[in-house]
Structure formats: C-alpha cells, structure tokens
Amino acid sequence: MSIVKIENGEITAIMPLNQPIDDTWRYVYDSFPDNYDSRYQTFTYDFFYNANTDQVTSTPNVSYIAIEDIKNTRLNELADTRWSHQIGGMDFNGVFIQTDDTTALKILGCRVAVDADPSLTFAWKTPSGFVELNAAYIIAISDGVRGYIQACFDNEKVHVDAINALTTPIDIINYDITLGWPS
Fold first, then answer.
1. Are 111 and 95 in contact (CB under 8 A)?
2. 96: phi then psi, degrees, rounded to nearest 5
C-alpha cells in the first residue's frame, strides 16, 4: 500500500516516512506486479488521481535490470550449481565416493603413496562401512574423482559460453543451468 498527497486535484507527493497524515493524503491499494522476480527486475508505480471519484490508482512499471547484471546473477547461480555437483559425491563401481575438497586431497595423498609403494593398502570408510583399497583401486578412484571434478568444470564452461552468447534478459533468465552434470 502507498499513500499519496492530493493538492488542487493533482498528486503532489508520495508518502515519506514519518509524515503526518491530513485530509490531503489518500491511500492507494497497489498490487505487486505478476511474475515479478527481484533478482532480475525493478519496479516503480505510476499514480493516477481521479477527482470525480476522489480515488487514486496505481500502475506498476516493471523493467529488467542491466543485461550484464542479469548475466552476472545467472553466472553466480551457475557457479553455485557447479560447486554443489562438484562436492556432491559420485558412484564408483557401486561405492559412493565423496568428492569434496578434503576427500579429494586424501585420495590424492593415497595415490601419491601407492605410486611410491604399490604394495600399500588403505582402509577407507564409506557410508556403508569400511572397504579395503589396494593400489589399483586407489589409482582408479583418484582418476575417477579427478575426471568427475573436471567434468563439473567442463559443464560449467559450456553453460558460461551459452549464457554469454544470449542477448535478451528473458533468454538469460530462462536458460536451464541444470543440464549436463555428471553423476
């Protein structure tokens, strides 16, 4: 709701904060614009006074923010999407492997160790319990995790290039960033 001031049959002001109200002010029951998305749009109201009915009406004016700001918002959403996939884990031959930074570093450390001594084995805790990992399995897991994480970045780049090629706000807003992620 807005409050506008009427003087001599004209709207002369929109209610400032802490303004005392007298009989020259009118309430306007303005509606929120349909399909308004504050991430990509701004809006203002035009107010109209009808002296015959002593009523004020409002019309929202919705406009998109600058196209580069829309692109930056979508690219930030895309980076968040890539990150959640990147650290979300992967299935490796029926074993769920975490792919967060800490786990990836531990796997890399095991890989370095088995490269130096292929006879090493590791007890690795999974959601379903401990599994014994030998050198071949550690090498395969480290290659799999590296490939999985790289696939996340490769997919993000495909989306970045596609978003940067778009030229209208609605195309950028409606572009589907959920496609193509590894599992």
1. no
2. -75, 125
Classified as helix, coil or strand, 113 is: helix
Question: Which residue range is the domain that position 16 belongs to?
Answer: 2-64
CB count within 10 Å of CB 158 equals: 11
Number of separate domains in the chain: 2
User: 159 lies in a domain?
Assistant: yes
pLDDT reported for residue 33: 63
Between the two ends of the chain, the Cα-to-Cα distance in Å is 48
Q: Which residues pair with 61 in a beta bridge?
A: 44
Cβ contacts of 46 within 8 Å, gap of 6 or more: 58, 59, 61
pLDDT at 83 over 80: yes
72 and 50 in one domain?
A: no
Q: How far apart are CA 134 and CA 43, in angstroms?
A: 61
Examine the pLDDT at 155 and tell me if it is beyond 90.
Answer: yes
